[in-house]
């Protein structure tokens, strides 16, 4: 790839000529001589091989090609300025990226609120977000690939910050045989029915979570898939209440009338990478996650 023939400073000069309304005004705004501005624009046109400005009366106006290139150049100059700001921020200890790993059961709306609040404070720091299930979060924290992690597992050797719990509800389709018993259900009623469970995304020591007393279980990769299968009449499952609000309201899913355990709360915790100091962006994001986890 050839090196660019036109510099960012040249594009800035052209923008000043157009934005300020002429060569003299651009020279004053940029604290340069008018002849220097004129030479810069003329050199640009020579390097590009096309006219960018044409004189109409006593005023320089953009050609059609000049208008297109000027519009594209504004994005280029803006990105270069953002890159310079990011480099300065990084020199001050600001991170270029924060790696956040979240258990799939964590309410997306809480996470979205935290990220929305983080955006204007991020100073160009990007968030790499990854969803895992159960021990998958733990593994990302232990292998150092997560700066922050939200998990429902107590992870040895880390000091967690407790977040609001997530409530799981035992549900099945209204037409499921369990809803035809017409009495409170016990765990014995569930044992001969198909249970849908979420696969642990961890590879080292995957865990089972919750009640697993059913003789027949189907394991799926996501909460959305589990909700779809159960909503289709295939088995029952404990699903996060926030994930199935609409299905419960519409009657697609119905809470099982269990004597006990129909609803259970799972605590969630925020962990930080203990092997490297938290940068300012990571600390800000952590504080916002904690703040917005308390809202529903």
TrEMBL record:
The keyword rRNA-binding does not apply. The keyword DNA-binding applies. Residues 6-63 form the HTH lysR-type domain. InterPro entries: LysR_HTH_N, LysR_subst-bd, WH-like_DNA-bd_sf, WH_DNA-bd_sf. Keywords: DNA-binding, Transcription, Transcription regulation. One of its GO terms (molecular function) is DNA-binding transcription factor activity. Coiled coil: none annotated. Belongs to the LysR transcriptional regulatory family. PANTHER family: HTH-TYPE TRANSCRIPTIONAL REGULATOR, TRANSCRIPTIONAL REGULATOR-RELATED. This is HTH lysR-type domain-containing protein. It comes from marine sediment metagenome. The lineage of its organism: unclassified sequences, metagenomes, ecological metagenomes.
């Amino acid at each position: 790839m050839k090196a660019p023939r036109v510099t960012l400073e040249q594009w800035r000069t052209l923008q000043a000529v157009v934005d300020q309304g002429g060569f003299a005004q651009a020279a004053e705004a940029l604290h340069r001589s008018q002849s220097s501005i004129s030479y810069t624009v003329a050199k640009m046109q020579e390097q590009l091989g096309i006219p960018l400005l044409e004189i109409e009366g006593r005023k320089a106006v953009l050609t059609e090609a000049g208008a297109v290139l000027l519009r594209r150049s504004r994005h280029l100059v803006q990105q270069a300025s953002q890159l310079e700001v990011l480099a300065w921020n990084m020199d001050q200890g600001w991170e270029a990226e924060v790696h956040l790993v979240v258990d799939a059961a964590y309410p997306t709306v809480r996470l979205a609120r935290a990220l929305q609040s983080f955006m204007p404070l991020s100073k160009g720091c990007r968030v790499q977000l990854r969803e895992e299930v159960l021990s998958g979060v733990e593994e990302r924290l232990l292998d150092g690939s997560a700066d922050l992690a939200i998990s429902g597992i107590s992870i040895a050797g880390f000091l967690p910050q407790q977040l609001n719990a997530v409530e799981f509800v035992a549900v099945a389709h209204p037409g499921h045989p369990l809803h035809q018993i017409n009495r409170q259900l016990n765990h014995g009623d569930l044992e001969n029915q198909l249970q849908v469970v979420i696969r642990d995304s961890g590879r080292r020591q995957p865990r089972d979570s919750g009640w697993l007393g059913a003789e027949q279980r189907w394991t799926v990769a996501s909460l959305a898939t589990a909700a779809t299968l159960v909503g289709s009449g295939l088995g029952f499952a404990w699903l996060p209440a926030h994930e199935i609000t609409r299905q419960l309201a519409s009657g697609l899913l119905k809470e099982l009338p269990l004597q006990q355990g129909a609803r259970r709360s799972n605590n969630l915790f925020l962990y930080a990478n203990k092997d490297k100091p938290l940068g300012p962006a990571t600390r800000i994001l952590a504080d916002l996650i904690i703040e917005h986890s308390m809202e529903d």
